[in-house]
Amino acid sequence: MQGKVNPFQLDSEIKYNPIVFYDGDCGFCNSAVQFILNKKKTEFYFMALQSDLAKNLLAKHRVIINLDTIYLLKNGKLYNRSSAALQICRGLKGGYPLLFGFYMIPKFLRDPFYNFVARRRHKLRAGYCMMPLPEDTKYFLK
To answer: pLDDT, tens digit, for every residue of 85-115?
Structure first.
């Protein structure tokens, strides 16, 4: 007899794609999640980096979690920092996909700007507990 199957065990990258991993205790990060929800043209799923499930999924990709880093798992490939942010821009409405052009700039030049903002994120926006709208709860994975 088989027990319950965890939908994240084998096919998490396929069933829930793409997944944005963010610092759930960061007000700036929570604001970014709200921004993505409001501007998305494609579906995004979200998971707080503090969750056990995030730790397990990212460990499969040999990642030691850094809370000042956003991660994006898209089609089985993991992006971080500025690369994740630019990949997310591709799935937003309006002119945001045009920002993906910055991907041509080497990561070692893009990431210092990302790191500058990431180090100051708690000062930019105080922490708060985000309550998603009922229609958005399906995008938050625990």
So the answer is: 999 999 999 999 999 989 999 999 999 999 9
Number of compact structural domains in the chain = 1
Question: What is each CA distance from 102 to 74, 81, 128, in whole angstroms?
Answer: 19, 13, 31
- What confidence score (pLDDT) does residue 21 get? 97
Has residue 137 been placed in a domain? no
Does residue 27 or residue 92 have the better pLDDT?
A: 92
Q: Which two tokens stand for residue 126?
A: 């105080």
Q: Do 132 and 140 contact (CB within 8 A), yes or no?
A: yes
Burial environment of residue 97 by CB neighbours within 10 A (0 to 12, 13 to 18, 19 or more)? middle
Q: What is the CATH number of the domain that holds 55?
A: 3.40.30
What local confidence, expressed as pLDDT, does residue 91 receive?
96
pTM: 0.83
Q: Cα torsion for 10, 89, 50, 59, to the nearest 10°?
A: 40
3-state secondary structure of 94: coil
- The encoded tokens of residue 138 equal 């399906």
| Angle in degrees, 0-180, between the axes of helices 81-90 and 107-119, rounded to the nearest 10 | 100
DSSP strand pairing (19-22 vs 45-48):
parallel
